[in-house]
Write a structure and sequence with these properties.
The complex is a heterotrimer of chains A (451), B (357) and C (369). Chain B is an alpha/beta fold. Chain B folds into 2 domains: 181 residues; 137 residues, 2-Layer Sandwich (GMP Synthetase, Chain A, domain 3), CATH 3.30.300. Chain B contains 13 helices and 14 strands. Chain C is mostly helical and 369 residues long. Chain C has 16 helices and no strands. In chain C, 52% of the residues are buried. Classes of the chains: A alpha+beta (451), B alpha/beta (357), C mainly alpha (369). Chains in contact: A-B, A-C, B-C. At the A-C interface, α10 and α15 of A face α5, α6 and α13 of C.
Chain lengths: 451, 357, 369
């Protein structure tokens, strides 16, 4: 708990130096090279502080009181590097949040340097007594949102807050949903952006993930890199990401529906490869798909649990050997192998891991529906999904904003990431108190056609 | 509680629905692609081709069945196979001339009412027996199906645009008679288009040969393309039509009523020094005039031939219907059409089209 | 003046556009062309448009009527005008009409599925799947249904672009000669095109859930206009693509048109149209279920959720029973007559009643306002 170097290098020499002339507590405090040194009377408080790593000094003269000096080791047990490990980006800062609340607050302050950035601290957890901080910018964030978040956090009664992900689930508007209702991220720039656009961030002690809300469905498909590239490439990659979501959700269900029910839609020329590759497969397409999808889920799950180096080998072994062997053994068709592998790949393009997981999970009900009812099942599944999304809310804000309720003002930065000329407004559905983010560029000199 | 109820209902419905309709799994069915119909005494004989993936790696195989109705033929075929037969992907239906002359209402009606078929199915008449045409597909690739032969020619403008939809369109039309391509086997047992079959409602009346087919296509005006031969100063030239248009207009007031065809052709002459003559300022008008004149005569002759057979494959009646507020199909074809005069005007524009001098 | 539900339950006025338009489109769009063709033949597009334009008048009347309802909807208005007993009876009749509406949609759609997609799937399975879906949606409340209506206007609209392909086969002479039919022919076609516009009357139920509803009439008119312009496109493309003989012989011309479409990656595009129609029938059916559950809730001691399930169960029974082709036709005819009477008979009558009661009992209305 205590930083022994602090004690040996600073505290003890200072005490030794002032051996002869001690009149009272004030004298001691004046000589100690520590800011956080206070006297304390109550035993409870003393116990609490000792547990946090303070050093206690007692004087023979000043009985009933003790001086508590803060010599705790802030970084003990924490990692030294704070690179983002799971939300990597090639361009842009690579620092991420760590397990230390103070550092996290500091990291956020570095990006938002105005005094209006407010940190409100509360304690949650009957056993862990975890410090949880609500961060927002006064004058931008709508007070109603902050109030809702405060109320939600106050209502929590947990024993140990292991991670902010726990908080996220407890304060979610609807707990019966596979969708994450709050953005959780380890990237500082993401949280800085969220806070600056009028959202509330919640930093929890001991968690490298910071959550922010109210979030919308689109937020989970936005990568900070979109903003670091120029708007044309940024938009392109964002649209690719959205399409890959659709692909990973619907590719295998469509395969099942077409091969089981609607073989007419296969073009005659495509019939040949499909028939030849799947001719000797003894299972129905559903069984085939379920077999392969489960295999991929197993690989992913095993890869995530294993140490990084073994994980890579496993990926190769699983991907190539199992896939190749199952085609050889006529358990699956080549074409399905391609589809399943591609849809797994596509599901990994989602920048927020939780959303990527959701998409992987949602594939299975869709597969079942398409196996039961064919194309009808896929459409019914799609409508169910859409209805579910329409019913969701994050901190009382509709989840599908700006598509529904339709907010034309927010389209500058949703499906398309427009040029910075046009993204001068904050997201309007958050009702920020100041709507303008910045003034657009001064008009640059154009090529003159009139000379 | 509510969600549990809902989940329960969903599982229940899933269980109820499970196990229904696995009939169409693609690698457990036999997919027919082409069918030919022949008369076989009292019955109708159907010959079908399907890609055989098990023994032949996808090259076509043949089956035969007989019955009074397409559905009965299908039943007969089904009795011969270990796999279910599905005919949803048929893209070619061939009738022998014998059947076509006797009327194809029953067959067409079954096809038209069956929603399993798409609109792009090729209907064709065969000069030899349909069985022979389909038999020639044995051990061939799907690529060589009559459908692709005809489609390729439709795209190039050698055969008028024709498919199931257009046939039905004309079949139900009051002022136009249907038509379809005619196929035959040549000496090497290759399928070729040998003409264009004109129907009176459901009965085959007349088969045009290939030069007439091109002219017929020009008259239809949907896609004017193709090669037109003509003579100029004793030499044979061929004009390639790149694009053109045909406007049909009705003249009701004239006695007898007249139909006017205004044909505009844009094309070039590549064969035999044609482009040299076309470049010659003094000769090009003569050249064009001779095309126009010869083409006009041929078109009028074709129209007369169609008229003499008592059919209206070009759709003159349709044009009269659209301008005459009191048009009556029966009366028109009894009194007006047989005596109708055709006024064909051709305007040919030649473009430079050769690289050599 | 006009009543409005609590703010958190209402939707923006512009959504009335999508609600009105989406509640009108339904299963009738698949086959109206061949039905109207028997009347004014190539001129029937006139009837379609005229009936559509008459809907402006109906909307006007509905807004007038609703403005004077105490609770802003038909349920309260009936009780208010005709007293408790007669009012509840009329609500019951309206409830039956709504059931008929949703049964007609479901039964006809399951016919489409059975004929065109899989012949071996029984009606009750289709009905069950759809009713579970509808109940899930309607359970989400009015805002969710509105959201779906919004999305399901946008998504199927993309398919209109593909009409371009069948129109390459169009023969525009099919519309000639114009206007050579007598008035009864137009009337016949008009009567047959009423089912296209049925569903607008649902406004009588969801009116209080529109924010600033008295001023929202502009959006209602836009919605109606959207409907008849869309139907105009469908009518004209079907009449250009088919000739009359073909049209009279076909069953679902709108689907038939899609049969000619094929791409190199997708040979049969008609499946897209068939499944797309789920998007089209879902919002009106959900609105109807939601509305009829509301009627039950106000007229009986049942709670909202229970009445939703009860309604769905009754619909399911009717759908299961009417499996044969005659029952489908009967259902369609009854619902057409009922819709025509409601839109052009009962709503004007209601307006008259409101006018008279305003005139006689002025003080009562001023209290209500």
């Amino acid at each position: 708990m205590t930083d022994s170097r602090e004690v040996h290098d600073n505290l003890l020499p200072a005490l030794r130096r002032m051996q002869d002339k001690i009149d009272g507590w004030a004298d001691v405090i004046a000589h100690l090279p520590f800011d956080d040194a206070k006297t304390e009377r109550e035993t409870d408080r003393i116990v609490q502080k000792l547990q946090q790593g303070y050093a206690m000094i007692q004087l023979a003269a000043g009985a009933g009181q003790a001086l508590l000096v803060n010599v705790r080791d802030e970084n003990m047990g924490h990692r030294a590097n704070n690179d983002t490990e799971n939300e990597f980006s090639v361009i842009g800062p690579k620092t991420g949040f760590v397990e230390n609340l103070t550092i996290n607050m500091h990291l956020l302050r570095q990006q938002i340097a105005v005094p209006q950035l407010i940190f409100e601290e509360t304690t949650i957890g009957s056993l862990s007594r975890t410090a949880v901080v609500i961060a927002y910018i006064e004058g931008i964030t709508n007070p109603q949102i902050v109030e809702t978040m405060r109320k939600r956090l106050k209502g929590i009664d947990l024993d140990v807050v292991y991670d902010s992900a726990l908080l996220e689930q407890v304060i979610a508007d609807n707990s019966n949903t596979p969708f994450p209702l709050f953005l959780t991220t380890e990237r500082v720039d993401r949280i800085a952006y969220a806070v600056s656009s009028g959202q509330v961030a919640v930093i929890s002690g001991g968690s490298p993930y910071v959550l922010s809300g109210p979030s919308t469905f689109m937020d989970f498909f936005v990568s900070p890199e979109d903003y670091y590239l120029n708007w044309i490439s940024g938009t392109f990659f964002r649209i690719i990401r959205m399409l890959s979501v659709l692909f990973s959700l619907f590719a295998s269900p469509i395969y099942i529906a077409v091969l089981t029910y609607h073989f007419e839609v296969i073009p005659t020329r495509l019939l040949h490869p499909i028939m030849l590759s799947g001719l000797h497969v003894p299972f129905s397409p559903v069984m085939e798909v379920l077999f392969l999808e489960t295999t991929i889920e197993l690989l992913r799950e095993a890869g995530a649990r294993l140490p990084a180096k073994i994980g890579q080998t496993l990926g190769i072994v699983g991907g190539i050997v199992i896939g190749e062997a199952s085609v050889q053994a006529a358990l699956t068709s080549n074409i399905l192998l391609i589809i399943v592998a591609l849809s797994a790949l596509a599901s990994f393009t989602t920048p927020i891991f939780k959303m990527a997981n959701t998409i992987r999970v949602l594939r299975f009900p869709l597969i079942l529906l398409s196996a039961l009812l064919g194309g009808l099942g896929i459409v019914v599944g799609f409508i169910m999904l859409l209805t579910h999304l329409l019913r969701l809310k994050s901190l009382d804000t509709p989840y599908l904003v700006p598509f529904y309720p339709f907010r034309s003002g927010n389209f500058a930065d949703s499906l398309v990431r427009s040029s910075y000329q046009y993204t001068t407004n904050r997201a309007l559905f958050l009702n920020p108190q100041r709507k303008k983010r910045y003034k657009p560029d001064t008009v640059k000199e154009d090529i003159d056609h009139e000379d | 509680m509510r969600t549990k109820l809902l989940l329960g209902m969903l599982t229940l419905s899933a269980m109820l629905l499970a196990g229904c309709g696995n009939a169409n799994i693609v690698n457990r069915i036999r997919i027919l692609v082409a069918v030919g119909f022949d008369r076989d005494g009292e019955l109708c004989k159907g010959t079908v081709a399907y890609p055989n993936y098990i023994h032949r790696k996808g090259s076509l195989a043949i089956m035969k069945g007989t019955g009074n109705d397409p559905k009965l033929i299908l039943q007969h075929l089904s009795l011969q196979t270990p796999r279910k037969i599905r005919y949803n992907k048929i893209n070619t239906i061939v009738f022998s001339r014998e059947i076509a002359a006797g009327g194809i209402t029953r067959l067409i009606d079954t096809v038209a009412r069956d929603p399993s078929l798409g609109g792009n199915v090729l209907l064709a008449v065969s000069s030899c027996s349909a069985e022979k045409v389909i038999n020639s597909l044995d051990r061939q690739e799907l690529e060589n199906s009559p459908y692709n032969v005809v489609q390729q020619n439709i795209r190039d403008g050698n055969v008028p645009l024709s498919n199931l939809y257009l046939f039905l369109h004309d079949y139900y039309s009051e002022g136009k008679d249907p038509s379809m391509p005619s196929l035959r086997l040549d000496a090497e047992r290759q399928i070729e288009v040998d003409g264009y079959a004109l129907f009176k409602k459901e009965r085959l009346r007349l088969v045009l040969d290939t030069p007439e087919m091109t002219l017929f296509e020009i008259l239809l005006g949907k896609k004017v393309k193709g090669e037109v031969p003509f003579t100029y100063k004793g030499e044979l030239f061929v004009m390639s039509i790149h694009h053109g248009s045909t406007r049909l207009s009705a003249n009701m007031r004239a006695v007898p009523a007249a139909a006017r065809f205004e044909v505009r052709l844009n094309g070039g002459i590549r064969s035999f020094q044609g482009n040299r003559i076309a470049k010659n300022l003094f000769e090009v008008d003569d050249l064009a005039a001779s095309i126009e004149h010869q083409l006009m005569e041929k078109l009028v002759a074709l129209l007369k031939k169609i008229q003499a057979n008592g059919i209206d494959s070009v759709g003159v009646g349709e044009e009269f219907r659209s301008v005459d507020r009191h048009w009556n199909a029966a009366e028109f074809y009894r009194n007006v059409y047989p005596a109708m005069k055709f006024d064909v005007r051709v305007k040919a524009t030649l473009k430079n089209s050769g690289a050599g001098e | 003046m006009s009543y409005q539900a609590s703010l958190s339950k209402t939707v923006s006025p512009y959504l009335l556009w999508f609600l009105i338009h989406k509640s009108q489109t339904g299963i009738a769009v698949l086959d109206f062309q061949c039905k109207i063709a028997h009347g004014a033949e190539q001129d029937s597009w006139v009837s379609v448009l005229l009936v559509g334009m008459s809907m402006h008048l109906v909307v006007l009347l509905m807004f007038y009527v609703l403005k004077h309802a105490k609770k802003g909807d038909l349920i309260s208005l009936h009780v208010q005008l005709f007293g408790k007993w007669l009012g509840t009876l009329l609500n019951g009749v309206f409830w039956l009409y709504l059931l008929l509406f949703v049964c007609n949609q479901l039964v006809t759609y399951s016919q489409v599925i059975q004929t065109l997609v899989s012949p071996d799937i029984p009606t009750w399975r289709v009905g069950l799947v759809f009713l579970l879906l509808f109940v899930y949606i309607a359970d989400g409340g009015f805002r969710v249904i509105t959201g779906l209506s919004f999305w399901f206007v946008l998504i199927p609209s993309l398919l209109i672009i593909t009409l371009f392909i069948p129109l390459q086969y169009a023969d525009w002479r099919n519309f000639l000669p114009v206007f050579n039919h007598a008035l009864p022919d137009y009337a016949y076609s008009a009567e047959r095109s009423v089912p296209l516009y049925m569903g607008a009357e649902l406004l009588l139920l969801y009116y209080p859930f529109i924010r600033d509803n008295a001023k929202a009439i502009k959006w209602a008119h836009i919605g109606v206009m959207h409907s008849y312009l869309l139907y105009g496109i469908f009518t004209i493309s079907a009449f250009a693509y088919y000739n009359l003989g073909q049209l009279k012989h076909s069953v679902w011309p709108t689907l038939g048109m899609s049969k000619i479409i094929h791409f190199t990656f997708l040979e049969r595009f008609d499946y897209f149209y068939i499944f797309n129609w789920i998007f089209i029938i879902t919002p009106p059916c959900c609105l109807v279920l939601w509305g009829s559950a509301r009627i039950l809730r106000f007229s009986t001691p049942l709670s909202g959720r229970v009445s939703l399930w009860v309604t769905a169960a009754i619909v399911f029974v009717v759908v299961t029973w009417s499996e044969d082709i005659l029952a489908v036709g009967l259902l369609e005819t009854i619902s057409r007559y009922a819709g025509s009477i409601l839109l052009y008979g009962y709503i004007p009558f209601l307006a008259l009643c409101v006018l008279v009661s305003n005139w006689i009992r002025k003080p009562l209305v001023s209290n209500a306002g």
